Amino acid sequence: MAPTDDAKSPVRMEDLVALCARRGFIFQSSEIYGGINGFWDYGPLGVELKNNVKAFWWQRMVRGRDDVEGVDSSIICHPRTWEASGHVEHFSDPMVDCRTCKKRFRADQLDDRQCSRPDDCDFTEAKQFNLMLRTFIGASEDAASTAYLRPETCQPLFVDFKRVREAARQKLPFGLAQIGKAFRNEINPRNFIFRSREFEQMELEYFVHPSQREQWFEYWFEERQRWHRDLGFGDDALRTRAHEPDELAHYANAASDVEFLFPFGWQEIEGIHDRGDWDLSRHSEFSGKDLSMTDEETKEKFMPMVIETSVGVERTTLAILCNALREEELENGETRTVMHIPAFLAPIQVAVLPLSKKLGESARRLAEDLRRRFPAFYDEAGNIGRRYRRQDECGTPFCVTWDFDSEEDGQVTVRERDSMTQERISAEALAGWLFERLGMPA
User: Fold this and answer.
1) What residues pair up with 134 in beta bridges, in sequence order?
2) Which residue from 421, 423, 428 is spatially nearest to 413, judged by alpha carbons?
3) What is the pLDDT of residues 61-79, one digit of tens each?
4) Which fold has domain 348-438?
5) Residue ranges of the chain that CATH labels 3.30.930.10
6) For the segment 116-136, what is each residue's pLDDT rounded down to a tens digit?
7) By C-alpha distance, which of 257, 150, 128 is closest to 197?
8) Superfamily of structural domain 13-77+150-321
9) What is the reported pTM?
10) Burial (CB count <10 Å: 0-12, 13-18, 19+), residue 354
11) What is the CA radius of gyration of the chain?
12) In contact, 130 and 92? CB cutoff 8 Å
């Protein structure tokens, strides 16, 4: 049965935000100055989790394929890029100001506004607000030096299409992939890191012959769902939604979203789009450079069609955290907070915990050895139960205890996070044992 629109997440957003700050996953940028709305910093656990998400995407989308090339483009592009893409003219949202609470809101999202006096709001007329963040190149600040921080990462891939295709000696179908920062001057950032002004995108632009656009759209639609399922998302928390004809961009032939059930409802975390030849045609027109191709056999000249997959790093990270957080009742009547993060994504994959500080020397040697292969952590502070609880909140899948018997028999106790079962293993065989359980899905 497909999940319904009124389905509820078991996680409370305030609990997740508090845990993320307490354990060093994510917290507000410039926090000691009161923060800055729409910008977030990632602490020791958060940056490891986010990097693991990006590494998994890169492995699946680039390194594991011979028909996709990776690119890392600059954040600032030639201003004509954004004229060709339509961002200068059309990339805007309707904005209103409230004369009562003095806050600014998107006119199409007033039902979601956070206002202390919502019944007394007195709104101005809506006006269009361009979402691109403007900057200046060079010492002067005039119209000739105006540039923009890129609002999306895909346009440089179209601009680089010809150069990379020739350098990599690729033939259709093939793709260009990128992970990179993008910036949008959102009117009303909200829902933690879900909608912010600085974010990262993982995007693939896959170029195909016009006759193959539909089959490749279906291929990538299925392939991207598989990736999300490999992140541990079940059918109760993940669904897809095809865009209705009146939702499609004027250049799009088809579009579908992958949606996740957040505490604030169903929201998009990835979009799969058939963009047609709009982007390459526009950049050909505005740059004066011919980006079309010629079939070597038929000599047919055509503009490639583009199938795009675009997933947000922050949104995916937030979905993983929401999917992982649980409060569980134990047999002894106590409650534990645990993050069931998939083991291959966990910021800390193994923690080494000596039963006593007297055993620290041997335990540290083990931790140093494991650290060469895995994200490992050493902790000797507090009783062993308390240390287990700390690692549960960090999402650490395996805790290794070095006890007094370990000094004699060379074995350690491995405690598994989800089941809390314990197993006695040879310290020499531990790295291989962990390696079998911590690898990425194929």
Assistant:
1) 148
2) 423
3) 999 999 999 999 999 999 8
4) Rossmann fold (3.40.50)
5) 13-77+150-321
6) 666 778 877 777 667 888 889
7) 150
8) Bira Bifunctional Protein; Domain 2 (3.30.930.10)
9) 0.90
10) buried
11) 25
12) yes
